[in-house]
Design brief:
single chain, Spore Coat Polysaccharide Biosynthesis Protein SpsA, Chain A, 8 helices
Length: 237
């Protein structure tokens, strides 16, 4: 682990230019923080090549490393998030996606909220601008301390019980259970999802859309059971 480093964990497939634009804005809106970008790319060589080229040529001082983890089969979102996590070294981890639009100062605000948590940190929810009223309970994307991920998420940010939904809900639910969840309304990271009418559903969305109802049912079952650690950790101490 590298103290102070923020690792952006981003799974992507089928959205080469969108992924590059997302990473570029993420870096440009957090110039004061040391950042590591860890991308997990499924069956999409164009995205892997473009991301690697962009990161290799990035001129900002805040990029302190990057990793591209490529899979030649569709491992799915939970496994991809965990692959990105395994490639990371940061004291802090960002649960990210390729359809995010990072607001100015998002990381400044999130880190200020992180500082209100006890030693060891916790989970700070971003404001996606569409589910603000729900933020007191959960956020779609977030900043977490690595220690929190290991101790309270069983070393994962993707959970094998889900596909395209509810990974965020379980992480936030686990954080609330131990009193380590903080919503950060000033950390604006807009989720430009098709549900909000900001873009059309694409082929990547369609791969996971049919699984949403099943994932929601599984989330309710797991929440009632107290979110058991019935899966292997992606990272350990």
């Amino acid at each position: 682990m590298i103290e102070g480093l923020v690792s952006i964990c981003l799974p992507t497939t089928g959205r080469a230019q969108a992924a590059v634009d997302c990473v570029a804005r993420c870096l440009d809106t957090a110039p004061a923080w040391p950042i590591e970008v860890c991308c997990a790319v499924d069956v999409d060589k164009e995205s892997a090549v473009l991301l690697d080229a962009f990161l290799g040529g990035y001129a900002g001082d805040n990029l302190h490393g990057w990793a591209i983890r490529y899979s030649d089969h569709y491992q799915g979102q939970p496994a991809a998030w965990n692959a990105a996590l395994q490639a990371s070294h940061g004291e802090y981890v960002v649960f990210a996606a390729d359809d995010l639009y990072w607001g100015a100062g998002w990381l400044d605000a999130a880190m200020a909220c992180m500082a209100t948590l006890p030693d060891g940190g916790g989970l700070v929810g971003f404001n996606d601008l569409h589910r603000t009223n729900a933020m007191r309970r959960e956020s779609t994307h977030y900043l977490a301390s690595r220690r929190f991920v290991i101790e309270h998420l069983n070393g994962c940010i993707g959970f094998p019980h889900y596909k395209g939904a509810c990974n965020d809900s379980e992480a936030c639910g686990r954080a609330r259970q131990v009193g380590l969840y903080v919503p950060c309304y000033d950390a604006v990271v807009e989720h430009r999802h098709y549900n909000h009418g900001l873009r059309k559903m694409d082929a990547t969305d369609q791969m996971w859309h049919a699984s949403k109802r099943k994932s929601l049912g599984e989330f309710r079952r797991r929440a009632q059971a107290g979110f058991p650690n019935d899966f292997e950790p992606a990272i350990r101490e």
